[in-house]
Amino acid sequence: MFVDEAKIWVKAGDGGDGCVAFRREKYVPRGGPAGGDGGNGADVILESSIHDNTLLRYRYNREFKAERGRHGEGSNCHGRSGVDTILKVPVGTVVFDQETGEQLFDFTVAGQQYRAARGGHGGRGNSHFTKPWHQAPREHEDGKPGEERRLRLELKLLADVGLVGFPNAGKSTLISRISAARPKIAAYPFTTLEPHLGVVSADPVSVPGEGRTFVVADLPGLIEGAHEGAGLGIRFLKHVERTRLIAHLVDTSDANPNDPIEEFKIIENELRSFSEEIAAKPVLVVATKLDATVDRAHIDELRKYAEKRGLPFYAISSASGEGIQDLVRGMADMLDKIPKPAPAEIDPGSLPDMSSVTPAPEFETDKAPPDPELHPETSGEKN
């Protein structure tokens, strides 16, 4: 199941409480305070991974709570800090604050990390409150609570070419012809209910690994009013935002009585109404179903309109393969001229801050430990 939106609740671990204890050991009068610090609570970290391509794992499991820090103990024993909780998300995931709608982070490459919730600091034990005039303090600090947030995760597919058009325009058949993707194909509208990705080789006769390849996304069909929720609505329009090139497929077969130019304008208007950024992307026009076309008047009209607009035009038949290779090469040539977006740099502020972790207490190594037969065990008391 393809899931591209999820709402989750994350809670970082609370910090452990500091300890109130005193050193009580034979032959050591007035040993003084020996309460250890509490451990830091664990963070909740989101990390992008190439091994996930959907947010399905967050469809039913939506609450995540990180480990809390342990309390401090006597003999200056510091509590253990919690182990961070790392949540995997697909590359292309955008993180929003559910309450304010603010965009918090955008995962564009694998391995990026974003700290969604910071763990609470551990409290200090009573050994930190010693003063010359107050040598037996009973004060201590409680651990700080960890952050708690409600997040909305939104997945936008990363692809080089996006196939758009009316339902039954031939998008699924085309991607199944030029790649290994196998979407559902049927003779009724809205057959495609979720996007499909396929890797296309533009130079099949080249040495393996050296030819040009690109990723094509087959997006569900659009109709008039899609940006307002008609048909499948705007649910999948956001996936076009990541593409570098838009291939606009238009059915020019004899079975389609509609004007192809009018259909082109309707889809173009839907993309523009949804986002001006999408409307500014390079577009190539593809007339489909040549094998089912006897009257070429619609094709000629669409070709003249594309030439008038300065848009590349291709006529293909996915069933017979006519014009497919020219279209693939044309896509690759246009992609060569379109610069790839630079990967976003990892924000240092989004990574775990290790400077706040309480270091382990240093022990004196030049003194031998007390003999358990001569000295009783140390004891401590904690509020």
Notes on the protein architecture:
The protein is of the alpha/beta class and 383 residues long. 14% of the residues lie in helices and 20% in strands. It is built from five helices and 14 strands. The chain has helices at residues 171-178, 260-274, 276-279, 297-309, 324-337, and strands at residues 5-11, 44-49, 63-65, 85-90, 93-97, 103-106, 113-117, 148-155, 161-165, 196-201, 213-218, 245-251, 283-288, 313-315. The strands form three sheets. A six-stranded mixed beta sheet has the order 10-11-9-12-13-14, sandwiched between helices. The longest helix is centred in the last third of the chain and has 15 residues, at 260-274.
CATH class of the largest domain: Mainly Beta
CATH superfamily of the largest domain: GTP1/OBG domain
Average pLDDT reading? 79
Number of helices: 5
Unreliable runs: 344-383
Total beta strands: 14
**Strand residues, percent:** 15-25%
Name the overall outline: rod-shaped
SSE order, one letter for each helix or strand: EEEEEEEEEHEEEHHEHEH
Helix/sheet category:
alpha/beta
CATH topology of the largest domain: Spo0b-associated Gtp-binding Protein, Chain: A
Radius of gyration: 31 Å
End-to-end gap: 52 Å
Let me know the largest β-sheet.
Answer: 6 strands, mixed
Return the domain count.
2
